[in-house]
Structures are given as structure tokens and as C-alpha cells.
Design brief:
The protein has 226 residues and is of the alpha+beta class. Helix content is 32%, strand content 22%. The protein has one domain: tt1808, chain A. The chain contains six helices and eleven strands.
């Protein structure tokens, strides 16, 4: 129901007493929404928006990313792109494209999503998630607590690799045959890269993003020559 949008009182997005500079996101959760109501809310919101919606069996979480969230999301995206480019991989970036699966009664808008192994299957086309494979790699940044079980959502979608970053730690998950994730020490796609390289890249980027990118690109290229 489009009228449900009117229930999203702007003040309810800012009830957290934590100072804004210590938060990564503002969140509001609505319960008891049907799939149809969720779809109507999606349609009522502008295409270009900062908020991101996650829906899971009647629960809708609306997230407003703040600076800490956006910084991490942007830099992790750059980290992945550098790896893909320097390793000669093909890439189709989906960013925060809405992934809706009515059959699973779930929908999500990740921070980053990529086709890598399946890039050739979706190259040059608008992806249809009911027919095309899911993204090969999805990234979610959640600095603050979320009540949504995002692991379960992306596992049900069949996403092979899922990264979650909480502002301090990166967790990497690989999908198993039972449609459940197991945590891995390294990325199945970039299995020679240690998590510490991402932490170092993020730390160096705080001082100078351009210099951090140049150094990391050079590092990846040197690894190819070893």
C-alpha cells in the first residue's frame, strides 16, 4: 500500500541516541508488510535515493547510510575492482540494484554486487533475477545492528560468495550445497588475497585514497609476476 510510505515519519529514522559520527547507518523497521505493500513502497520511492530497502517475509528494513558506511562501501568496491582489473577478470557491477525474488518472499539492495564467473551470461543485458543467475559476489556493510538475517537472504538467492563488513572486521562466506554459508579465511574468487590487505588498504585510504589505490594496484601487478 502506497499509504504505508506516509508512516515513515522522518523523526523515526533518527531515534538512535548514538552520536552520528559513531554510526554507520540510520535504520527503521516495519513489520507485517505484504509482498504487494513492499513492492508499492519500492515503486513510490524515487529511483535515485540514498536509502536501501531489505525485505524478508513481512519485515521491511529501510537503511539510510551515513559517512562511515559509504566510505567503507566505496573503498571495498574499489578494492574488488582493482583485483578484477589487474587479474584480467571480466566484471559486471550491479552496485545496489534491487534483487527481488517473490518466490522466496525476499528482496535486498546490497552495497555492492558483481558478476565475475557468470559475467558472460549477463553481459550487455538487463539482468532478470527470475531467469539469470544471481551475482557471484555480494558485499554488505553493516556498521550498526540489523534485525534482518542477510546471510539467509543471500543464501536463498543462491549468491555463491558473500562479504560482510562491520567497520572493523570482514567476514567472507561461501555457499554450500544445502544453501547455507560457511565462513572462509579467504575469498573463493580472490583466494591469494589475505583480509589484512583490505584492512591496510582501508587504513591507507584514510590519508590519501589515490596513493592507496596506486600502491595496491602495484602490489597486485607484482604478485602476477612472481
Amino acid at each position: 500500500m502506497v499509504t504505508a510510505v506516509s508512516l515513515l515519519d522522518r523523526q523515526s529514522l533518527f531515534t538512535d541516541s548514538t552520536p552520528e559520527h559513531n554510526r554507520g547507518e540510520n535504520r527503521v523497521t516495519l513489520n507485517g508488510l505484504t509482498w504487494q505493500a513492499y513492492q508499492q513502497i519500492l515503486e513510490a520511492l524515487p529511483q535515485s535515493r540514498a536509502s536501501r530497502l531489505t525485505y524478508d517475509h513481512g519485515t521491511l528494513e529501510i537503511t539510510m547510510p551515513l559517512e562511515t558506511h559509504e566510505y567503507a562501501s566505496e573503498l571495498i568496491s574499489l578494492f574488488i575492482r582493482i583485483l578484477a582489473v589487474e587479474m584480467g577478470l571480466r566484471l559486471k557491477s550491479m552496485r545496489s540494484t534491487t534483487i527481488n525474488r517473490q518466490a522466496f518472499n525476499r528482496g535486498a539492495e546490497p552495497d555492492c554486487a558483481y558478476y565475475i564467473q557468470n559475467q558472460s551470461k549477463v553481459a550487455g543485458k538487463i539482468v532478470d533475477f527470475t531467469q539469470d543467475p544471481p551475482p557471484d559476489l555480494v558485499v554488505e556493510v553493516d556498521i550498526t545492528h540489523t534485525d534482518i538475517d542477510k546471510n539467509r537472504i543471500y543464501a536463498s538467492f543462491g549468491v555463491p560468495e558473500f562479504w560482510r563488513y562491520n567497520g572493523k572486521e570482514l567476514k567472507i562466506y561461501q555457499l554450500q550445497q544445502q544453501n547455507v554459508y560457511i565462513e572462509c579465511d579467504r575469498s573463493p574468487t580472490f583466494n591469494w588475497i589475505d583480509k589484512e590487505y583490505l584492512y591496510r588498504f582501508l587504513e591507507e585510504a584514510k590519508e590519501d585514497e589515490v596513493a592507496a589505490e596506486i600502491r595496491f594496484r602495484a602490489f597486485v601487478r607484482n604478485q602476477k609476476l612472481v
